[in-house]
Specification:
This protein is an alpha+beta fold. It has helices at residues 14-28, 83-96, 141-144, 147-167, 184-200, 207-219, 260-280, 292-303, 310-334, 344-349, 354-362, and strands at residues 33-38, 48-55, 62-68, 104-108, 118-122, 228-230, 239-242, 245-249, 256-258. It has a 5-stranded antiparallel sheet, with helices on both faces. A two-stranded antiparallel ribbon has the order 6-9. The longest helix has 25 residues, at 310-334. The radius of gyration is 20 Å and the shape is globular. InterPro entries: ACAD10_11_N (IPR041726), AGP_Transferase (IPR051678), Aminoglycoside_PTrfase (IPR002575), Kinase-like_dom_sf (IPR011009).
């Protein structure tokens, strides 16, 4: 794991991006220049981030972050990148909640300046639990923290979800309702079916993913609950912390109207993904951190809503994550970093957590 090559994330030239950004900035803020333009090493494999400083004759000097839609030439993770939707979501959350959402400054819908739509927000200083190597591995700030410090961070992070779900009026977030028929949860799952079909178009299908879709029907909640604004990618790796307190909540591209438990299931499972992976490589990880029972209890205490049908929702999270991982693997195939799987079983093996997903389907994981 420590020596595995990181999959390619872009085909863009950082120097060209910096030059084009400077030209665009002058049209929005005449006389301004973009300096210290960098692409962070932790750049994700979906929308891309560019960090820069705005220099202008009139203060203040602003440190900014730019989120640009994924490079169409880089075998994108998702079929659509709606930057105005993300921009609007962040403004909505800032307006209705006390969550620390970075202030958004500009939205550019024209793909001309940088090759794709983007928005600019103020940069927030702090530290983020790492994904590579995962924070469950020894040698990073969160792993080295005390148990009390991690417990504080855990509760503060669950509070982010509690306040988001309680404070944003659902009617104000109607623009995030997914298309289709049926309940918000039905629409959410059907959107994932369509996403999976797009991922495997012309490529080997995944039996474990398809069995998980079938199992969802068996576990379907009798009472789905009312929809709320879901963050979407609800995990601590998308929060900047000042000490152990959230200073900025990032990455809203998966936001949607859905039951509360969709976010909670994602939070629970994404930690388990890192924890299981760490244990499989012979390290203890953080077995007492972000446990499912404690997250559910904390959320219930903060909101008065006891999470329901969490076997369904953690399975759904693991299924969604598997589709993303399969797409990442097929992008590696596209760039010649991996071989096309010879069979459906080999396609399953491209998903790092295929064993835990299979155990969830069989009801033996938790």
């Amino acid at each position: 794991m420590a020596t595995a090559p990181r999959p390619r994330t872009t085909t863009r030239d950082p120097e060209d991006l910096a030059r084009r950004l400077g030209a665009w900035l002058d049209t929005r803020l005449p006389g301004a220049k973009a300096s210290d333009v960098t692409v962070p090493e932790s750049n994700g494999m979906s929308s891309e981030t560019l960090l820069f400083t705005v220099e202008h004759p009139e203060p203040p000097l602003r440190k900014c972050a730019l989120r640009v839609a994924a490079d169409p030439a880089a075998y994108t993770i998702f079929p659509v990148y709606d930057m105005p939707r993300q921009y609007r979501t962040m403004r909505l959350v800032a307006e209705h909640t006390d969550l620390p959402v970075p202030r958004v400054l500009w939205l550019e819908e024209d793909p001309g300046p940088l090759g794709a739509p983007f928005f600019v927000m103020e940069r927030v200083e702090g530290r983020v639990p790492p994904d590579v190597m995962p924070y469950t591995y020894e040698g990073n700030w969160l792993y080295e923290a005390t148990g009390a410090e991690r417990a504080h961070l855990e509760e503060a992070s669950v509070r982010v979800l509690a306040h988001l779900h309680d404070q944003v009026p659902p009617e104000a977030a109607e623009f995030l309702a997914l298309p289709g028929e049926g309940s918000p949860l039905r629409r959410h799952v059907e959107a994932q079916r369509a996403y999976y079909a797009w991922v495997v178009d012309g490529l080997p299908r995944s039996p474990v993913i398809e069995s998980a879709f079938d199992r969802l029907q068996d576990l379907w909640p009798r009472d789905e609950g009312e929809p709320v604004l879901n963050w979407g990618d609800a995990r601590i790796g998308n929060i900047i912390y000042d000490g152990f307190e959230p200073a900025a909540v990032l990455d809203w591209e998966m936001a949607a109207l859905a039951p509360r438990e969709v976010d909670l299931g994602w939070t629970v499972y994404l930690h388990r993904f890192f924890q299981d992976l760490t244990v499989s490589f012979g390290q203890p990880g953080l077995p007492d951190f972000q446990r499912r029972d404690r997250i559910e209890a904390t959320y219930a205490r903060l909101t008065g809503h006891t999470p329901r049908d969490m076997d369904f929702h953690t399975l759904y999270a693991a299924l969604r994550h598997a589709i993303v991982m399969l797409r990442v693997a097929y992008r590696q195939v596209h760039f010649g970093e991996a071989a096309v799987p010879a069979s459906a079983q080999d396609a399953d093996k491209l998903i790092l957590h295929h064993d835990s997903l299979a155990a969830m389907v069989q009801g033996t994981y938790w």
